[in-house]
Amino acid sequence: MSDGYVKIDSANGIASITFHHPKSNSLPSSILRAMAEAITAAGKDPAVRVIVLRSEGDKAFCAGASFDELVAIENEVQGLAFFSGFAQVINAIRTAPVLVIGRIHAHTVGGGVGLACAVDIAYAHAKASARLSELAIGIGPFVVGPAVERKVGSGTFGLLSASPAQRREADWCVQRGIYAEAFESLEDLDARIDTHTRELAGYSPEAMAELKAVMWKGTEDWDALLSERAAISGRLVLSTFTRDSIARFKAAVAKG
């Protein structure tokens, strides 16, 4: 439990994939790997018509990359391996022959914004702000960047990337296409997701698979592209700037 978990529950054509980590749903490599495997497995299951990606807890939907694991990276090979975990999750969503719905119930940061943009449709709580934070610690949103840019366009992606300290409110995210809708209560959020997933579960799986392929047309090179981007982050994470930035953040958290 201390390292978090990923679990999958399937019923009536709907696969719910849930991840959790005690540190605000941050993402160590073990969770990234398990998440990618779960999405891939659900996509291959002929009984699954739609996937819901969600997290547990009330602090954050996702706090992004695990700082504990980032500071443990000792060389570029390890850096590439870690950031490739984000690439694997995004590519699993991209290649799954079913639609992936995101439940963004709270604030999301860094790689969590990447997840919110990678899913085919994201529904959010009204307080689910977003912050693309990577530049603040000397990395940059390189791996998740293609998913974010695909959703919001290059101009908004540049703005998000270059303002890592600023939280963008849920309404702002809806206006830019990160979220499809935002709801004032978790009950309303869950009701919308339940209604939409039940609807999708009744449609032709062949038609939805073809629709998914059309929606992601032009991303066929992402296996190589995201690996290249992971290598950039894997190199930058070794910098003194990044080490010092993470140390200061962890010290501030420890002080409360």
Overview of the molecule:
The mean pLDDT is 96. Helix 3 runs antiparallel to helix 10 and helix 5 packs across helix 6. With 256 residues, this protein is of the alpha/beta class. It has one domain: 2-enoyl-CoA Hydratase, Chain A, domain 1 (Alpha-Beta Complex), CATH 3.90.226. The chain is globular and about 55 Å long. Helix content is 52%, strand content 15%. It has a six-stranded mixed sheet, sandwiched between helices. A two-stranded parallel ribbon has the order 5-7.
Write out key terms for the chains shown.
256 residues; 15% strand; 6-stranded mixed β-sheet; 2-enoyl-CoA Hydratase, Chain A, domain 1; globular; alpha/beta; 11 helices; 52% helix
User: Helical segment tally?
Assistant: 11
Supply the CATH architecture. Alpha-Beta Complex
Strand composition percent: 5-15%
**Poorly predicted segments:** none
What would CATH call the class?
A: Alpha Beta
Number of strands: 8
In terms of structural class, how would the helical and strand content be classed? alpha/beta
Silhouette: globular
